[in-house]
Write a structure and sequence with these properties.
The complex is a heterodimer of chains A (381) and B (265). Chain A is an alpha/beta fold and 381 residues long. Chain A has nine helices and 18 strands. Chain B is mainly α. The radius of gyration of chain B is 19 Å and the shape is globular.
Chain lengths: 381, 265
C-alpha cells in the first residue's frame, strides 16, 4: 500500500450554538449563570485514510457536514475529538484569492496571496511568470485589482493556488469558476493532477457525476455521519439511494421490467450512430398486459433538453398485440441523445412501466447550421 | 520561539507588513511622505502649545525633544496595541478561509507599528539636532528600552486580540484604560511637577519607566527615572519578571483561543 497522506481518526466536530450569541461582555456575564447554548454535532466519529496519488471524493448534500470536514482537513477548524494527521504540504481550494486587496496591483496581490498560501517570497518570485502566464494576465499585472473584471480576478487567484504545487490539494466543487475556456484549462490541470502519482486530491462535491468521473474512492457523508466508504461508483449509488430513493428504485427495476426497446437504422441493423436525416426505427416489445393502452416515446438531448415526444393516443393509433415499431426521421442537430419510453393506462398519470434510460444515440449533422433541429428556412436579399 | 520563524512565516510577515505600509496612505497625494510629515506636524503643534501657551517643562533641559520623544513612544504603544487588538478580526477572512499562522497576523501588526515608530524616531532625531541636544554614550542602551516597549505591546496584543474575538467590548474598555494610562504617565508633564511621595508609585507603570529611561538615554541625564525613585528590585527585577510572565500567559491564552478563531469570528 502506498503512503498514507491523510489520516482521519474518529473525528467529531461540534459547534456551540448560543441561544443568544454572546458578543459582548455584559451578555457573557449574564449568560454565565444560564449557560444557554446548544451543542450542535456537525460531524460524528468519522474515520478514513487517503493514500498518496489518490483522488478521493467526499459526497454529501448541503448541510451534511462535508464542508466542515473539508475545513477540518484544511486545519482551519480543530476537531472537537479525534485526530487528523496530514503528511505533506497542502493547498486548500476552498476559496481562492484570500486576502486579495483591490488597492494593490495584480503583482502585489500575487505575492500577498502566495504568502498566505504558505509560499515563501523566493518561491513566488520563481513561479511568478508561470502564474501570470497561466492566468493570461501578462498585460494587467501592474494594474490595481479594482480594475480587474471578476473573471480576471478569479483567474489570477486560481493560478496562484495551482502554482503552489503542493502535494495535497483540497478542492471544493464550488470552484467551477471563470469562463468556459478557463474552466477547460482547470479541468485539464485536474486531469494532469489525477495522473500524477505524487499528488493527492480530496474533492468535495454534491455532484455524484463529478465524483464518479474524477475520484478513485469516495466517502458519503449524511447528517454528520460517514455512511459509506469505498469505490467512487458505489459511493455515488449510495448517495443516490440516500437522497433520491425513488430514482434508484426505478433504475434498478428498469432492467427487470418486462419491456424491451431497440433502435435500428433503415437497413434494420441495430445502431447508436445516425446521420442527419436518416430514418430510425425503435422496436418496442413488452409482456402482454391488459393495463397498457398507450405507448409514448420522448427524445432528450444529453443536456436534458426535451426535444420531441409523442404517444399512440395523441397520434390516434390503437395498440394491437405486444409490440410496435416507432419510426422517426433524424432531423436533429449534432449531439448525444437519449430516450424515455412510457407504457400508460388510460391517462398519462397511470404509468404501468416507465423507462428513464431508454436507448441512446448520437447524430452527426452537416456543419452548415446549428441547433437542436433543422427548420426549413429562406433568405431574401 | 525560534521554531516559529520558518521561511513561510517570515515571508507571510513580510508580505503583511509591506501590504499594510502600501495601503496606509493609499490614494493620498503625498503618499509615504505622510509617514514623516504627520509626526512633524504633530510635533509643531505640541511644541507651540507647551513652550508658549502652557510651559510645563520650564526647568527641563531640551524640553521640546524630551516632550516629543515621550509622545512618540506613547503613540507607538497606543497604535501597536490597537492594531494588535484588531488584527485577528481585521483579517477575519484569512482566518476563516485558509490555514494561516495566527501569531503572524498579530506580530505583523506590531511590526507595522514599528515601521511607523522608526519614521517618528527619525523625525525626533532631526529635532534633536536642530535644538542642539548632546548625545550621551548611554544611548547605546536605548535599543534595550525599545525592545522592552515592543515586547510589552506584543504581549498585550496577543492577549487583547484573542479576547476581542469573543468580546467586542474590549475595544472601548481598552480605550478608557489607555486614557487613564496617558494621564498617569509623565508624558506631557515632567516628573518634577509630581509630588515626591507619589513618584515611586507612578513609576511602577511600565510605560512611565520606559518613557523616562528613553529620555534619560537620548535627551538628558536630568530625567527622573524608575531606578532613581524605586529600589533596584522594584525598578528592574519586578518589571522583567512581570513582562516575562505577561508574555508567557498571553501567548498561552492566544494559543488556546486560536484553535477556535475560525468558528468564533
Amino acid at each position: 500500500m502506498s503512503n498514507v497522506r491523510i489520516k482521519v481518526d474518529h473525528v467529531s466536530k461540534s459547534f456551540k450554538l448560543p441561544h443568544e450569541r454572546t458578543n459582548s461582555l455584559k451578555q457573557a456575564l449574564l449568560a454565565l449563570n444560564r449557560r444557554s447554548f446548544e451543542k450542535f454535532k456537525v460531524l460524528e466519529d468519522v474515520s478514513f485514510e487517503v493514500h498518496e496519488g489518490e483522488f478521493f471524493g467526499i459526497l454529501g448534500r448541503n448541510g451534511s457536514g462535508k464542508s466542515t470536514l473539508l475545513k477540518l482537513l484544511a486545519e482551519i477548524y480543530a476537531p472537537s475529538s479525534g485526530k487528523i494527521q496530514i503528511d505533506g504540504t497542502l493547498t486548500p481550494f476552498i476559496e481562492v484569492g484570500v486576502g486579495f486587496n483591490d488597492e494593490l496591483t495584480g503583482r502585489e496581490n500575487v505575492f500577498l496571496n502566495g504568502a498566505i498560501l504558505g509560499l515563501t517570497t523566493k518561491e513566488i518570485e520563481q513561479k511568478y511568470s508561470e502564474i501570470v502566464a497561466f492566468a493570461e494576465l501578462e498585460r494587467f499585472m501592474d494594474q490595481k485589482l479594482k480594475n480587474y473584471s471578476s473573471g480576471m480576478r478569479v483567474r489570477l487567484a486560481f493560478s496562484v493556488a495551482i502554482q503552489a504545487h503542493n502535494k495535497i490539494l483540497l478542492i471544493d466543487e464550488v470552484l467551477a469558476v471563470g469562463d468556459e475556456r478557463f474552466q477547460d484549462k482547470c479541468l485539464k490541470i485536474f486531469s494532469q493532477i489525477k495522473k500524477d502519482p505524487t499528488k493527492t486530491v480530496v474533492f468535495v462535491s454534491h455532484d455524484m457525476g463529478a465524483v464518479q468521473r474524477f475520484c478513485d474512492r469516495a466517502i458519503v457523508v449524511h447528517d454528520g455521519k460517514m455512511v459509506f466508504i469505498g469505490d467512487a461508483t458505489d459511493a455515488a449509488l449510495e448517495y443516490k439511494k440516500l437522497n433520491f430513493p425513488e430514482t434508484v428504485i426505478n433504475e434498478r427495476d428498469e432492467a427487470k421490467m418486462p419491456v424491451h426497446a431497440r433502435l435500428c437504422n433503415q437497413k434494420g441493423k441495430p445502431t447508436t450512430v445516425f446521420n442527419f436525416g436518416e430514418q430510425a426505427t425503435m422496436h418496442i416489445k413488452w409482456k402482454p398486459d391488459q393495463r397498457i393502452k398507450n405507448v409514448g416515446v420522448a427524445l432528450f438531448r444529453d443536456d436534458d433538453t426535451y426535444v420531441f415526444g409523442s404517444n399512440t393516443i395523441l397520434d390516434k393509433i390503437t395498440i394491437k398485440g405486444d409490440e410496435l415499431d416507432y419510426t422517426f426521421q433524424m432531423d436533429l442537430g449534432t449531439g448525444q441523445y437519449y430516450t424515455r419510453i412510457g407504457f400508460f393506462g388510460d391517462t398519462d398519470a397511470d404509468k404501468v412501466y416507465f423507462i428513464n434510460n431508454g436507448p441512446q444515440f448520437s447524430v452527426a449533422a452537416p456543419v452548415q447550421w446549428q441547433g437542436v433541429t433543422y427548420i426549413e428556412h429562406d433568405w431574401r436579399v | 520561539m525560534l521554531a516559529f520563524l520558518t521561511p513561510q512565516n517570515k515571508s507571510l510577515l513580510r508580505q503583511l507588513v509591506i501590504t499594510d505600509f502600501k495601503l496606509r496612505y493609499q490614494g493620498s497625494v503625498l503618499g509615504y511622505f505622510w509617514s514623516l510629515l504627520k509626526p512633524l506636524l504633530l510635533f509643531g503643534v505640541l511644541y507651540g502649545v507647551f513652550t508658549y501657551v502652557l510651559p510645563l517643562g520650564k526647568g527641563v533641559p531640551h524640553y521640546p525633544a524630551y516632550l516629543l520623544l515621550g509622545v512618540v513612544l506613547w503613540n507607538f504603544f497606543v497604535e501597536a496595541t490597537n492594531m494588535g487588538m484588531g488584527s485577528i478580526i481585521g483579517r477575519g477572512d484569512m482566518v476563516r478561509k485558509v490555514k494561516i499562522s495566527k501569531p503572524s497576523i498579530v506580530i505583523a501588526s506590531i511590526l507595522s507599528a514599528c515601521v511607523n515608530l522608526g519614521f517618528n524616531l527619525i523625525v525626533v532625531g532631526f529635532f534633536m539636532i536642530i535644538t542642539g541636544v548632546q548625545i550621551q554614550p548611554v544611548v547605546v542602551f536605548l535599543p534595550v528600552i525599545l525592545i522592552e516597549l515592543v515586547a510589552l505591546a506584543l504581549a498585550l496584543s496577543f492577549f487583547l486580540s484573542a479576547l476581542y474575538v469573543r468580546f467586542r467590548d474590549i475595544a472601548p474598555i481598552w480605550e478608557v484604560v489607555l486614557q487613564v494610562m496617558f494621564y498617569a504617565t509623565p508624558i506631557i508633564y515632567p516628573m518634577t511637577l509630581v509630588p515626591v511621595r507619589l513618584r515611586g508609585f507612578l513609576m511602577l507603570n511600565p510605560i512611565a519607566q520606559i518613557v523616562q529611561d528613553a529620555r534619560e538615554m537620548l535627551v538628558t541625564p536630568a530625567t527622573i527615572t524608575a531606578h532613581e525613585v524605586l529600589p533596584f528590585w522594584l525598578s528592574v527585577i519586578v518589571p522583567c519578571v512581570v513582562l516575562g510572565l505577561l508574555t508567557v500567559a498571553s501567548v498561552l491564552f492566544f494559543k488556546k483561543s486560536a484553535k477556535s478563531f475560525a468558528e468564533n469570528l
